[in-house]
Amino acid sequence: MNASYGKSNSHVKSNSRRRAARCAVFTLLASMAAVSANAQTPPYLEYQYATITGSGNTITVTRLPVVLSTGTSYVNVVIEFDVAANGTITVAGNPTVVAAPAQLINNFLAGSYKGPSVDGNYDITVFGPGTTTGGATEWSLATATGANCYTTPSSATWYVFGGPMTKHPLYQTLKAAGITTATYQAYSWGTTGTQSCGGSPWASNSLIGLSQTGSALMIYSFTSNGTYQNQPAGEITYVNQNP
To answer: What gap in Å lies between CA 28 and CA 217, rounded to an integer?
Structure first.
């Protein structure tokens, strides 16, 4: 049976145009990635390390590394497309290229950490920074191989964000906890993931506030018995082993 049976010609043509658009975008991004991957000597671009998003007729490339012989800089690129009546895809004008703002990191350091001296097997690894919405950077931690089951938290994700609390990725959780503006500004905020052994205040989905001074990473739980609160219910400090 014909696959288009029962559908109008306009509907079939519309589907064809959408498929053509998706194919054109995929081909463009694949060719850009191939060029950067094959380049060996500066100058070249590293699309594989950028964040690529799409909306409507526009593709946005965030923090695209530009590698020169003198070092690496980062740019944001916006590419707009036109779609002709027959489905032909063309680039609308020239891409917009601007310098990417410096990432917010609030002194956080990626790497291996050890916990309190009372248990030398409280080991975690911190990863980041990644780029997310609103100009925030995203960080995460996970227990290292061989770490004590009760390492707390055993996994977590948090955000370094320079905007107001109402725009924070975790605003609804911060609001539920009754976090004041002063407390909000004192920490970077995140939540714990699924925990191995940790109970209250380090259970899964606990609200946490984090700060870093030098090699010391301080983590505070703002959750007790599954309820968010505006005062710390627990605290633990880890020390970076390779600052």
So the answer is: 42
pLDDT score of 131: 75
Domain boundary among 69, 99, 129: 99
Print burial letters for 165-200: b (CB count within 10 Å at least 16), e (below 16). beebbbbebbeebebeeebbeebbbbbbbebeebee
In a domain, 176, yes or no: yes
- Here the tokens at position 209 are 């506030």
* DSSP secondary structure string for all residues of 115-129: --TT-TT-EEEEEEE
HSE-CB at 110 with a 13 A cutoff on CA atoms is 9
Q: Is the peptide bond before 43 cis (omega within 30 degrees of 0)?
A: yes
The answer, yes or no, to whether the previous bond of 153 is cis (omega within 30 of 0) is yes
pLDDT value at residue 89: 95
Whole-number average pLDDT of the chain: 83
Domain count, the chain: 2
pLDDT at 11 over 70: no
Average pLDDT over residues 17-35: 52
Measuring CA to CA, which residue among 75, 77, 121, 137 is closest to residue 101? 75
**Is residue 3 domain-resident?**
no
Lowest mean pLDDT among 108-117, 147-156, 196-205: 196-205
